[in-house]
Specification:
The protein is mainly alpha-helical. It has two domains: 6-152, no CATH class; 160-192, no CATH class. Helices cover 46% and strands 11% of the residues. It has seven helices and four strands. It has a two-stranded antiparallel ribbon. It has a two-stranded antiparallel ribbon with strand order 3-4.
Amino acid sequence: MPTVSRNAQVLRYLLQVAPGIGHVKLAKFAYLADLETLKYLGRPITRFVYIKDQFGPFDKKGFFAARDELVGAGLITENQVQCGDYLGFEMRPTDQVLEYDFTLAEAEVLRYVGETYLGMRTRELCDDVVYKTEPMLGAVSGRRLPMSVVARKPGHRLGFNLERMLAGEESAKAGRVQPLATVVDGLRSRYN
């Protein structure tokens, strides 16, 4: 079983959720996944360094290194396709197994991003979603994006911990639950 970098794992996972997307859309999915994990977990999921370029947030060197890593390991295929007046790329995961090192919350964010934005055309995704994100607003071309502006801080108003919530759901699915009366009695004794 191949071992690949964290960035390559993120791209491969996104391609499993959204097979057949091209470079631009995959790069934007990774960016959006980083924004979501910063918001809900306080940390990015990748190690990409986003720069504002003519096509929005992108880590050209990091993205293509991760893509090349996946192609080299036989974890994805990449084919040129005609996209109107230009040639694009279509990437798909292969059947080769890859063991991911994501937390439950990270995997959920990747699934959410892939499923939520898969149906959008690339131009629509960029114009209506990506370019309107907080780090992109007022960003200077050629400069690193201020990703930390969306990072969740301790005591944030969000009021819940995504990792604990997902762990609780998994526990309930596995049958590890308590009757409501027991939970309510515990809360009453704690606050009385």
